[in-house]
Design a protein that fits this description.
alpha/beta, two-stranded antiparallel sheet, Peroxisomal Thiolase, Chain A, domain 1, about 425 residues, 2 domains, 11-stranded mixed beta sheet
Amino acid sequence: MSTHRDAKGRPIVAVTGLGVVTSLGQGKDANWEALTAGRSGIHRIERFPIDGLRTTIAGTVDFLFDEPFTAPELSEKLATLAAEEAVTQSGLGEAGAFPGELFMAVPPVEIEWPQRQELAGEIEGDADYDGLLRAAATHKYKAMHELFLFGGVADHIADRFGTKGSPISLSTACSSGATAIQMGVEAIRRGETQAALCIGTDGSVHAEALIRFSLLSALSTQNEPAEAAAKPFSKNRDGFVMGEGAGALVLEDYDHALARGATILGIVAGCGERGDGFHRTRSSPDGKPAILAMQDALADAGLTPADIDYINAHGTSTPENDKMEAMSCTAVFGERMAELPISSNKSMIGHTLTAAGAVEAVFSFLTIAKGRIPPTINYTQPDAAIPLDVVPNVARDAKVRTVISNSFGFGGQNTCLVLAAAPEAA
C-alpha cells in the first residue's frame, strides 16, 4: 500500500532516471553545458542534397553516426541512447528486464522517397501508392515493410530493455513526448504498474519532411547564419527549425523508488491535455485549448499559478505560435508574466517535433536540480506585443522548484506538465 500520496489520494510519481540526445550532444552533461552556455546545435544540412530547398538548416544529430538512416532507424537509435542513460541512472532494468511498461512517442512513419523509387522499379504498369505498399509487403521487401510499420520502433525498444506488457506507440504531433509521460503517470496512478519507461524520439529530418513543412510556410528561411535562425518570441522570427533528438524518463511509484533506495530526481506533479481541432496546423486564435491545458495541469497537481517558478515554453519561433503562447500564459498567470521567467530551448536545438515534450521535460528537471535557467538565444529584437521575461541570450541562476512545460501540437493537440522537486527537497 502506497503511503506517499498526493492531494487527490493518488500515488506520487517520482522520476529516477533521465536521458537525452540532441544536436548539442549525447547525454545530460553535454546538453546542459551547451544549453547554459547558449550554444546552438543548428547548422547547414550535409546529410542529403539541399539544392533548391528554401530551408537548408536543421538541428541534426550527425556527430554520432557515419552512415545515413531512414527516419525510423534513426529514431530508434536516438531512443536507445536516451533510454540507456535513463535506465542506467535509475538502477532499474538490469540484464534487460525493466520492471514496468513502455510508453513511446514516435514520428508518424511512411515509406520515404528513396524506398518508393526502389519499389517502383519492381511494379509493372502504373506505380500508384497502393502498388508500392503491396510490393513492400512481399517477402523480398519484408524488412523494409517492417521498418516502416508504425509501432516497430517501440517493439524493438521493448525487446532491448525488457519492458512489461504491450509497448504503447503514440503520435500526437508536437505534444507527443509530453503525452508519453502523461500516459506513464496515469498508469502508475491507477496502480497498473510501479514503473514506466517514457520516451519521445524523432529522427525525421530528411528532404521530404523539409519540403512538407516548407509548403505549410512553417520553417524559417533565414539560413545564414544557421545558428541565428531560431529566435522564439523575437519580432523578426519567421518559423521553426527542424531538430532531431530523444528524451527518456524513468517514472516510478514514489514508495517503490524509496523502498529500493533510489535517488529521486523530482516528481511529475500534474498533467493537462486539451484538443480543439480548430485547424490542421494553426492554433486556435483565442488560445483557449492552451489555457485550459495549463489550468488542467495546475489543478491536477493541486497547485496555483503562484506556485510556478519557471515556464519551459513550447516557443517554436513561428509568428503565430509564440504570440498565442504568450497570450495564453498571460491569461493563466496574469500580472506575474511580467516577471515570471519563460524560455525556449528550441532556440538552440530546434524543434525536435515528436521528441520535444520529453526532451524538454528532461531539461526542466535539470533546471530544477542545477538552479539555472537556460536562455532564449537570438533575442535581439524584442516584440512589443510579447512583453515577457524570456531569459534573453544568457542563462540565469535561480531557485526553481516547480516548472510548467508546454507542448502545443498541430491539430490542436496541447499537453502541459507540472514538474517539481522531490518532496524532501521542497
